[in-house]
Amino acid sequence: MSGIIGRKVGMTSLYNEDGKMMPCTVIEAGPCVVTQLRTEEVDGYEAVQLGYEDKKESHSNKAEIGHFKKAKTAAKRFLAEFKEFDSQLEMGEEVTVDIFEEGEFVDVRGKSKGKGFQGVVKRHGFGGVGQRTHGQHNRERAPGSIGAASYPSRVFKGMRMAGQTGNKFVKVTNLQVLKVNKEKNMIIVKGSIPGANGSVVVIEK
Amino acid sequence: MNPKIKEALADAESANQLPDFKAGDTITVHYKIKEGNKERVQPYQGVVLQRKGTGATGTFTVRKMSGGIGIERIFNVGSPFIDHIVVNKVGVVRRSRIFYLRGRRGKAARIKEKQR
């Protein structure tokens, strides 16, 4: 699985050959640097660690500086690991968007927009009561029954209830790559991706 | 539009060069229509009610009277089906969205033309 780290720029639209409008997302990705090679002997698994976006050395602690010194690069703000990278990489090698080709399908993961504590209608798509009148009082968006009574005398685990919505890592799979621009480090994928504009995302294939 | 998005689309052939027009203008949209394998251009003339959105995601609404019945059509600014657009009249209106035109007929539905 190859991949790259980037930031979501925003959404726009492109047109396909039939003239149909396609919603698409622009991502500014890479160039990333290989900061560590995980090996079977040392770490127990094979992986490639990539770093994205420079940060000041004064913003990193000594452990971080030492880690990046091994790869002979500046301190990086974001790190991500990829198992079974398609190509053999060396420490300090650059990875750019040209690992992706136009037309192929990628997965994008990132942190979704936080919605706060939400009820079951918004969080799980419950229908609500559906009626305002006929004695509904104030229970229009209530979840209803959460189980039977004396048997089982408990609420089953995983029962869908109200709670924190969004602000968690989400992966969107099978997004088609529409354009790859190596000079500007931009990639355009069809469809939407998690997170607000400017949030960090990882693109994998 | 975010300048970075503009940058990303710079090389895209989406550069649909449309003339400047706003709500209240009368325009003719020459729209390509596919019939089987043939393609022909159909003109659609009417008053622009509104422009929405920016860049490639923008749309505009054109209203015309056809046999006493009002027809409104929404076009995408970046649509490859738009052959070209001709601005016939530049109208003088005070608002950017002239939905009040829907309730008017005949003489009341006229729009003052800009004197050049």
List the helices and strands and how they pair.
The complex is a heterodimer of chains A (205) and B (116).
Chain A (H helix, E strand, L loop, with lengths): L2 E13 L5 E9 L2 E7 L1 H4 L3 E8 L7 H9 L5 E7 L11 E2 L9 E7 L4 E3 L1 H5 L38 E3 L3 E13 L4 E5 L9 E5 L1
Antiparallel strand pairs in A: 1-2, 1-12, 2-11, 3-4, 3-6, 4-5, 7-10, 7-12, 8-9, 10-11
Chain B lengths: L2 H7 L16 E10 L2 E15 L6 E8 L2 E8 L5 E8 L27
Antiparallel strand pairs in B: 1-2, 1-5, 2-3, 3-4
Account of the protein in words:
The complex is a heterodimer of chains A (205) and B (116). Chain A is mainly β. Chain A folds into 2 domains: 158 residues, Elongation Factor Tu (Ef-tu), domain 3; 41 residues, no CATH class. Helix content of chain A is 9%, strand content 40%. Chain A contains 3 helices and 12 strands, in the order βββαβαββββαββββ. A 6-stranded antiparallel β-barrel of chain A has the order 1-2-11-10-7-12. Chain A has a 4-stranded antiparallel β-sheet with strand order 5-4-3-6. The longest helix of chain A is centred in the N-terminal third of the chain and has 9 residues. Chain A starts with a strand and ends with a strand. Helix content of chain B is 6%, strand content 42%. Chain B has 1 helix and 5 strands, in the order αβββββ. Chain B has a 5-stranded antiparallel β-sheet, with no helix packed on it. The termini of chain B are far apart.
Task: Sum up the structure in keywords.
heterodimer; A: 205 residues; mainly beta; Elongation Factor Tu (Ef-tu), domain 3; 2 domains; 6-stranded antiparallel β-barrel; 4-stranded antiparallel β-sheet; 3 helices; 40% strand; extended; B: 116 residues; 5-stranded antiparallel β-sheet; 5 strands; 42% strand; globular
